[in-house]
Amino acid sequence: MESSFKSEAELSELKIRLRDALSIGSHFQEQYKEEKHSREELEKRLKEYDAMKQELTALREFVYNSTEDTPPTVNIPISEMKKAIAMKRITIVGGNENWVKKLRQEFPNWKFVSASVSSTVDNMSILKAERVILFTDTLGHSNYYKFKSMTIYLKKDRNIIAKTLSQHCFYNF
Predict the structure, then answer these.
(1) Residue 96: phi, psi to the nearest 5?
(2) pTM beyond cutoff 0.70
(3) Within 13 Å of residue 113, how many CA atoms lie on the same side as its CB?
């Protein structure tokens, strides 16, 4: 009887352990289901974020390409450009002396104002001009601001160029 009592005690203890193990097992199964559901939700959100990221990247690329300053490609030969602007009334203020001499030979109708002009602004040369080009490399600050303010006041088209390259000049018209 004693052995059956031990067996029953052991059996009852084993049943308690089994119930505890099943309880722990069901608890882990519950946690596993919750974690699996949570992971599925996170994967779904990750896919949504990836789609949003791709859309944002495409949008950023579009905006970058739309606002990027690309120099215009000019297919017109320079000789034709020179012919087109030769008869325009243009006043050039400043510029290297050698460069001005070359331009004066090529465009005799243009008005050239020396970089070392007096402190009074030549209103007539600006008033008659269709376009005023200011070369900042050889023009003093005070004269630059006087000519610039005069072109603004008279509402004249103007270009402000920092390099005295004749091709650069032609591309700015």
Answers:
(1) -65, 140
(2) no
(3) 25
DSSP 17-86: HHHHHHHHHHHHHHHHHHHHHHHHHHHHHHHHHHHHHHHHHHHHHHHHHHH--PPPP--S-HHHHHHHHH
**pLDDT-wise least confident of 1-5, 59-63, 69-73, 95-99:** 1-5
* 109: three-class secondary structure by DSSP: coil
How far is 30 from 116, CA to CA, in rounded Å?
Answer: 90
Query: Using one digit for the tens of pLDDT, what is the confidence trace for 136-158?
Result: 777 777 777 777 777 777 766 65
What is the token pair recorded at 157? 């088209």
pLDDT of residue 47: 93
Q: How far apart are CA 156 and CA 71, in angstroms?
A: 24
